[in-house]
Amino acid sequence: MHRRPEETAAGFLTEWVMEKFDVVIIGSGPGGYIAAIRAGQLGLKTALVEKDKELGGTCLNVGCIPSKALLTSSDHFVFVKKEAAKHGIVIDGARVDLAKMQERKDRVVKTFNSGVRTLMKTNKVTTFAGLATITAPGKVSIKSSSGETQEIETKNIVIATGSAPVELPFAKFDGKTIVSSTEALEFTEAPKKLVVIGAGAVGLELGSVWNRLGSEVTMLEFLPRIALGFDLELSNLLQRLLTAQGMTFHLDAKVSVVTVEGGRAIVAATKGGEELKFDADKVLVSVGRRPFSDGLGAEKVGVEFDEKKRIKVDKHFRTNVEGIYAIGDVIAGPMLAHKAEDEGIACIEIIAGNAGHVNYDAIAGIIYTNPELAGVGLTEDRAKEQGIDVRIGKFPFRANSRALCSDDVEGMVKFVADAKTDRILGAHILHHFASELIAEAVSVIEFGGSSEDIGRTCHSHPTLSEAVREAALNVEKRALHIMNR
Ligand code: NAI
């Protein structure tokens, strides 16, 4: 950063004085801004560079946060329309004011934007607006949107530039008919027919939003299952429940062509040798994200990438170039905000000379459909593939008192425990509130706990968390509220 030019006794201005940072973080998503906060807490002289208008990255601006706002609003609508009457609440003529729903979502995002800005100030982080390019180790040039360039110097650089949606070569994004998640969060009316390519987290969440708000949603998935990476039994159950909610699934469907004419699309796919055709007002392509480092200049200073264009790092987030680190979606591992956050904290602690560490066995993945699908650690199938002898404990929410009171009985909890030691290796939950319930299992995994540890822990009654305890007890086939014999 440049300080004000200083005046000599004669009144001449001396040269701009270059201020050197301890760390410059490039990218202000959850990885970058959390790293900046930790750096501020540890007293490092910190800068954060962001090319977009607002701080917060994909998660805050066009990802996790706006999607959860719309998921909550659309879930409320379904409750009012389909569930309220069961509770004796009669609401006639419920309808959606989409403009208002979108306004609320935008307000949520803005509130967070200003929260992050304040956090940067209170942690004494200097923020720069513009595209950062690494010109040499320890040197970052920043080009603002108006074209001005300035260079800053630093001892360390942390690359936290995130990811971008993958584009299909035969279905390029046009932002209107063929869209990514960014535009699918901004529809001003529910498309009559929405085709979603890819039944992963993005497709299932946004497919759910628009299905709830009245679209006819067709999901096309290349694999024979939805929600790859999650427990297969729970994923299949989720698919059945989403189908009952009105979504149509075609698995093993290979999309080959998407043509757009007059603002409408025809999507052609093959499924078991059969040709399928779907017409759509909108096509959401949600087939994954790619690491993003366009314009960063990392290759020019010798930073190595792997075959998937991810920046290569060691266990301490160090690239092969001295003083350059990388975290989050731009390196290997699940593309999850909380994984990036933890890497950001660990990386800064390492830079500050402390012991930073991330336990990748204790990072949960969550899909925020209704019910939500959450999982941490090994699945039953993955344990088998790895030749690990495991015992499984399951418990259905149908047998949980609180779920019954709330009429929220769909789903189950499933534990995967080491057969010899009883240590919990994985936990999987399908339930309306699975995203909150999984936290208990994450903590127990972090502490190396066993199913017996959870089974012997008193859980308040009546709560959904009792189903977590019951599933843990059922590793020993001793759940209390179901018959095991
Ligand atoms: P994804 O990798 O989770 O799922 C993409 C799906 O598309 C896969 O099932 C894949 O088999 C399928 N696919 C790929 N090519 C296809 C084709 N040509 N035709 C049909 N299907 C095809 O990717 P997604 O959902 O786009 O999410 C991207 C990243 O963002 C993921 O890493 C995800 O974990 C993360 N994310 C996390 C969220 C959360 O934590 N709730 C929410 C949204 C995204």
Describe the structure.
By secondary structure, the chain is of the alpha/beta class. The protein has 13 helices and 22 strands. The protein folds into 3 domains: 20-59 and 104-165 and 290-358, FAD/NAD(P)-binding domain, CATH 3.50.50.60; 178-287, FAD/NAD(P)-binding domain (3-Layer(bba) Sandwich), CATH 3.50.50; 362-476, 2-Layer Sandwich (Enolase-like, domain 1), CATH 3.30.390.30. Helix content is 30%, strand content 25%. The protein is globular. The structure holds 1,4-dihydronicotinamide adenine dinucleotide (NAI). Residues 168, 197-203, 205, 220-223, 228, 255, 286-289, 334-336, 366-368 line the site of 1,4-dihydronicotinamide adenine dinucleotide. 1,4-dihydronicotinamide adenine dinucleotide (NAI) is lined by residues 168, 197-203, 205, 220-223, 228, 255, 286-289, 334-336, 366-368.
The count of DSSP E runs of length 2 or more, i.e. the number of strands, is: 22
How many domains? 3
Number of discrete helical segments = 13
Residue-averaged pLDDT: 95
- Small molecules in complex: 1,4-dihydronicotinamide adenine dinucleotide
Instruction: Classify the helix fraction into a percent range.
Output: 25-40%
Rg value: 25 Å
User: Major sheet, described briefly?
Assistant: 7 strands, mixed
Keywords:
binds 1,4-dihydronicotinamide adenine dinucleotide, 5-stranded parallel β-sheet, 22 strands, alpha/beta, 485 residues, 30% helix, FAD/NAD(P)-binding domain, Enolase-like, domain 1, 3 domains
